[in-house]
């Protein structure tokens, strides 16, 4: 059983461009791989419980470690899950300290995909801090894709945290990771070639 979990970022969804590219790529080139695209709660203090239940309920191969693709906040969550369950993750412009970044986002938001309105609170920030993984047990479990032109996150934070991981650092680009589709072969190879 070959399975991958895709985790979208804050204010995103499984309908995002990267998620769609992953869905189409695996359907065409690796139809034997099941890719799961959960819709993560917009409110951070609900995310960890939701993810733990989702993994236990849906992923059959969890006892052998997870295979995860995480973008932005999804990269932060992917790291937390891999440190908990084992496995491997591909992180695309991952958030390293979202509990600091989101201080500037306290208040009401509307998810542009679901149109859901929600309020980000200090409690959410505290909760995110509890999911932090300052030390990676096995850095080689991570393939980390960064673009220096990321306008949302400082790529140097991820470069420092994952310095002993497989790093792909591209000049320019942006937070969405321009040209992401050109890396899907390498992503698939890293996550499923040896399983």
Provide structural commentary.
- The protein is α/β, with parallel strands linked by helices and 195 residues long.
- It contains 7 helices and 8 strands.
- It has one domain: 3-Layer(aba) Sandwich (Rossmann fold), CATH 3.40.50.
- The strands form 2 sheets. A 6-stranded parallel sheet has the order 2-1-3-4-7-8, with helices on both faces. Strands 5-6 form a two-stranded antiparallel sheet.
- β7, α6 and β8 form a beta-alpha-beta unit.
- The chain starts with a strand and ends with a helix.
- The model has no long low-confidence stretch (mean pLDDT 94).
- It comes from Alteromonas aquimaris.
- This is Esterase YqiA.
- InterPro entries: AB_hydrolase_fold, UPF0227/Esterase_YqiA.
Structure summarized in a few sentences:
With 195 residues, this protein is an alpha/beta fold. The chain has helices spanning 17-29, 47-58, 73-85, 98-101, 122-130, 155-161, 184-192, and strands at residues 2-7, 33-36, 66-71, 87-92, 107-110, 117-120, 142-147, 166-170. Helices cover 34% and strands 21% of the residues.
Short key terms for the protein model shown above:
Esterase YqiA; 8 strands; 7 helices; AB_hydrolase_fold; alpha/beta; two-stranded antiparallel sheet; 6-stranded parallel beta sheet; UPF0227/Esterase_YqiA; 195 residues; Rossmann fold; 34% helix
Mean pLDDT: 94
Provide the number of structural domains: 1
Which secondary-structure class do the elements indicate? alpha/beta
Distance between the termini: 9 Å
Pfam family, one: UPF0227
Protein name: Esterase YqiA
InterPro entries: AB_hydrolase_fold (IPR029058), UPF0227/Esterase_YqiA (IPR008886)
Organism: Alteromonas aquimaris
């Amino acid at each position: 059983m070959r399975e991958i979990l895709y985790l979208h970022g804050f204010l995103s969804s499984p309908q995002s461009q990267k998620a769609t590219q992953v869905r189409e790529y695996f359907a065409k080139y690796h139809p034997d791989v099941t890719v799961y695209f959960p819709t993560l709660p917009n409110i951070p203090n609900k995310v960890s419980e939701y993810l733990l239940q989702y993994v236990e309920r849906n992923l059959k191969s969890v006892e052998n470690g997870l295979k995860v693709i995480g973008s932005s906040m999804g990269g932060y969550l992917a790291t937390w899950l891999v440190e908990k369950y084992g496995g491997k993750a591909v992180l695309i412009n991952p958030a390293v300290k979202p509990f600091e970044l989101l201080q500037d986002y306290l208040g009401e938001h509307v998810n542009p995909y679901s149109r859901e309105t929600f309020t980000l609170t200090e409690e959410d920030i505290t909760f995110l801090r509890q999911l932090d993984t300052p030390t990676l047990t096995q850095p080689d479990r991570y393939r980390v894709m960064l673009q220096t032109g990321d306008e949302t996150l400082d790529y140097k934070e991820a470069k420092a945290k994952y310095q002993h991981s497989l790093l792909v650092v591209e000049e320019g680009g942006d937070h969405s990771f321009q040209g992401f589709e050109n890396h899907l072969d390498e992503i698939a190879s890293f996550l499923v070639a040896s399983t």
